[in-house]
Amino acid sequence: MQADKLRNEVCTANLELARRGLVTYTWGNVSGLDRERGIVAIKPSGVSYDRLTPETMVLLNLEGDVIEGTLNPSSDTPTHMALYRARPDIGGVAHTHSTYATAFAQACTPIPCLGTTHADHFHGGIPVTRRMTEEEVTDNYEANTGRVILETLDNQSSIDMPAILVANHGPFSWGKDCQAAVKNSVVLESVALMAFLTRNLSPEQGAIPRYLLDRHFGRKHGPTAYYGQPEA
Amino acid sequence: MQADKLRNEVCTANLELARRGLVTYTWGNVSGLDRERGIVAIKPSGVSYDRLTPETMVLLNLEGDVIEGTLNPSSDTPTHMALYRARPDIGGVAHTHSTYATAFAQACTPIPCLGTTHADHFHGGIPVTRRMTEEEVTDNYEANTGRVILETLDNQSSIDMPAILVANHGPFSWGKDCQAAVKNSVVLESVALMAFLTRNLSPEQGAIPRYLLDRHFGRKHGPTAYYGQPEA
Amino acid sequence: MQADKLRNEVCTANLELARRGLVTYTWGNVSGLDRERGIVAIKPSGVSYDRLTPETMVLLNLEGDVIEGTLNPSSDTPTHMALYRARPDIGGVAHTHSTYATAFAQACTPIPCLGTTHADHFHGGIPVTRRMTEEEVTDNYEANTGRVILETLDNQSSIDMPAILVANHGPFSWGKDCQAAVKNSVVLESVALMAFLTRNLSPEQGAIPRYLLDRHFGRKHGPTAYYGQPEA
Amino acid sequence: MQADKLRNEVCTANLELARRGLVTYTWGNVSGLDRERGIVAIKPSGVSYDRLTPETMVLLNLEGDVIEGTLNPSSDTPTHMALYRARPDIGGVAHTHSTYATAFAQACTPIPCLGTTHADHFHGGIPVTRRMTEEEVTDNYEANTGRVILETLDNQSSIDMPAILVANHGPFSWGKDCQAAVKNSVVLESVALMAFLTRNLSPEQGAIPRYLLDRHFGRKHGPTAYYGQPEA
Questions:
Q1: Pairing mode, if any, of strands B58-61 and B66-68?
Q2: Chain A residues contacting B, CB < 8 Å?
Q3: Which end of chain D is less enclosed by CB atoms within 10 A, N or C?
């Protein structure tokens, strides 16, 4: 039953990616973790979004062994697993090839924090990983992608920075659950688009001042938050 | 009853922002003022557009005290209030993070009047505020946002200039009522997009001549207007 | 009855502008001419597209006098009339503020013929008018707009060049009837978008060779045409 | 019956082009080949997509003679035929004027492989043909277009490189059947958009390393493929 709930949530989150226009054909994937039971549900590999149902989700343990489901899991599964194992506060991961975030990733360029839309959701510029070496790409490519992401994040918290750009590839995002991971993908794409345009208008534009970044991030996150409604 | 009408109008105007593609998730907010009774209705904070109903609108007096409604009002409420108190001809205010207008705001660049689409609706370039100081951001941030908007508008009339860009943040617009404020947000986004493209094609392009600006603005506003139909 | 048919066609053509995403609010207008009877039908001024019906179309003679209809005709009516009077092969005129064509008009930059999509529909670069003088703008502005368009077209045929950009303003297009005029507006916007992107990729890109222009234009127009099906 | 199946598939593939937003009016065309029987089905020339039915598809032999159907075949038919005759592994061809791919074609600029989205589908940069000579354009233009495409592809396999840009014109793509050809058109447009943006952000950005290209292309193609599900 718990597994059913997880499958439902992860299926819905994958469909949300498609509904928000972030994916083409079978690109992209979302997973969710039930940390108590150590079970991850993830999109099956190469299945088109209009055929996704909760039953097609693949269940794995945190070592990446399939424990339920007849389909192959997303080929990016080892990247998701690396994030779940290293970061205890992550409960969902999303990966897309969304247009503007991918353009920044392809340009190997971080997205500087150029405005309050960005500051409301990311506590600083979105980092980009270094390029992966031939060795990292040839063997255990997807697991190594996870390692390079973690190396780049270093000691930044998963709350402060819930997304990253993998150089030459595209964005990954995460959150407390799979819905939060998807939301961070959507906001990232919007922030990337605005940053692209801002750089066109003003190529030397620097990041907003720290006090404005802190104010906006703090309006929505942590003990100083006053945006929204008190939780029911 | 009057309050019901105001709530309906403001709810519809908020939904119009979403319908026109100007908002993502819960971003943006619209308010409307019943100046006779001194009552403002505004979107509740952080509530998604598909859950908005007239009943969820929050009613406040012009000092910003909630007088009806159980939800928190938009966190930008003090900005709206500052505009209503200073400008007796404003009856509606809208705030969005619409893509192109926000890009100009992030670039801290005003939008010059480059064509008649702009001149039909704004009597000159759309101004951008100065950046706010650390003090202004740390205390009473949203009220200070209103003060900086008013400082930038200076003695330009609300009819001549019904929108502004807040530096590093995004656009605010206004009008005689909440529908007019939303319309000005939509037109602003369209004008910002065209200005972005025009600057790409011709980086040194200057504003159109004063006589063309006056002709077009005057076709639609004031005693010389001859666009549209006589009011019923 | 003939008038009913004309009203129907012109109403449908105006709605086609909206359906194709070329207009915002009440912007844009299409007219059609019954040349035998000397009657023009045109969109009423400032009426939103979702309220247009054949009955709301305004009928005028070629001098611009309203002969049927209770609404004011489009404020751009004198521009349409100037085109009909000067060019006997024009039976429809469309005017929009479509995004990319307007950006070129605002940049006072003609659209060079950079590819076969353009060459299939326009026999050379889309011209841009000179800027209008203060005198031309202050008195009889809309009629003078028509005069400046005709001055710019000079002796180019209406078939070879069915569109123009009015400097600082936006595009006008025409054709044998109002449907053809709308189609030319849609194609012009598409061609303008591609030209914008091409110039970004290759700023010094010149026009395609004359022989390619002639081949493609000749595939679709005139005695050498072999595109499409024989007329029934 | 075989012919009926081919007609159905080719009609559906043409409609897919329209559904994916890659065509305007009657632009674009898809064909499919039944290689056993040597029969090609192709879109009729100049017929709008909302009137396409399987019955309107035109059947031809590989010499380009119509063998069934009352409508004229696409004017680009000789280009399709040249590809089918020269490449025994091609079973479908698609041609569009999709926006970003056409912009690269107009700029006579190949699309470098700037990321893994590209590498997943194309085994290297998308080539652009040389410009065609006056002679090639004046006589047998469409057949010569096919010859220049083949000259540019040279000894690259149809699997490694399933698309090309014709200089000053637009993209052609192909695949084992007409659905694969359409999919390659859609992916090409997406890859072209991302490349356009990447070049804007980082004009000197070079192609990704060979080992990353091979890894990603090999995940989806050939004996090393591990993306997706085993064929049923």
A1: antiparallel
A2: 114-117, 183, 186-187, 190, 193-195, 197-198, 200-202, 205, 208-209, 211-212, 215, 219, 226-230
A3: C
Q: pLDDT tens, B14-39?
A: 999 999 999 999 999 999 999 999 99
Rounded-to-integer distance, Cα C96 and Cα C58, Å: 18
Burial pattern B115-149, b for ≥16 Cβ within 10 A else e, equals bbbbbbbbbbbbbbbebbeeebbeeebbebbbbbb
* Tokens, residue A131: 């390029």
If residue B195 lies in a helix (H) or strand (E), which one and from where to where? helix B178-201
- Cα distances from B53 to residues A59, A132, A214, A232, B146, in angstroms, run 40, 50, 32, 19, 27
Count the Cβ atoms, other than its own, within 10 Å of residue D21: 11
Beta bridge partners of D66: D60
With an 8 Å Cβ cutoff, are A197 and B75 in contact? no
Q: Which residues of chain B are at the A interface, by a Cβ-Cβ cutoff of 8 Å?
A: 24-27, 44-47, 71-72, 75, 97, 99-100, 102-109, 131-132, 134, 137-138, 141, 168-170, 196, 199-200
User: What is the side-by-side strand order in the sheet with A66-68?
Assistant: A66-68, A58-61, A39-42, A29-34, A92-95, A170-175, A163-166
Q: What does the pLDDT read at residue C2?
A: 73
Point out the residue among A202, A212, A226 whose CB comes nearest to the CB of B137. A212
Q: Which two tokens stand for residue C219?
A: 């595939």
| C83-86 own/partner pairs: CB under 8 Å, 24+ apart | C83/C146, C83/C149, C83/C150, C83/C172, C83/C174, C84/C33, C84/C35, C84/C40, C86/C146, C86/C150
**Domain edges within chain A:** 3-221
For strands B39-42 and B29-34, give the pairing.
antiparallel
The complex scores an ipTM of: 0.96
Q: Are A81 and A32 in contact (CB under 8 A)?
A: no
* pLDDT > 70 in chain D, percent: 99
String of DSSP letters for B75-128: TTHHHHHHHHHH-TT--EEEE---HHHHHHHHTT--B---SHHHHTT-SSPBPB
pLDDT digits (tens, 9 = 90+) for D49-59: 999 999 999 99
CB B205 to CB C138 under 8 A? no
Residue C33's nearest CA partner among C24, C23, C25, C42 is: C42
Based on the residue annotation, tell me whether A227 is a catalytic residue of this protein.
Answer: yes
Do B192 and B111 meet the contact criterion of CB atoms below 8 Å apart? yes
pTM: 0.97
Average of per-residue pLDDT values in chain C: 96
Q: How confident is the model at residue A3 (pLDDT cuts 50, 70, 90)?
A: confident
Q: What pLDDT is recorded for position B232?
A: 58
Place of tokens 């991971």: A181
- Name every chain C residue with its beta carbon within 8 A of the beta carbon of B187: 24-25
Task: For helices B77-86 and B141-153, give the axis angle rounded to 10 degrees.
Answer: 40
Which chains are within 8 Å of C by 3+ CB pairs? B, D
Cite the active site residues of D.
120, 227
Instruction: Round to whole Å and give the CA distance between B97 and B118.
Output: 19
Contact C34, C48 (CB under 8 A): no
| pLDDT tens, residue by residue, A154-211 | 999 999 999 999 999 999 999 999 999 999 999 999 999 999 999 999 999 999 999 9
Cβ–Cβ of C47/B115 closer than 8 Å?
no
- Superfamily assignment of C3-221 in CATH? Class II aldolase/adducin N-terminal domain (3.40.225.10)
Of the candidates C193, C202, C227, which has its C-beta nearest D99's C-beta?
Answer: C193
pLDDT of residue C232: 57
d(CA B26, CA B18): 9
Contacts of D223 (CB under 8 A, 6+ apart): none
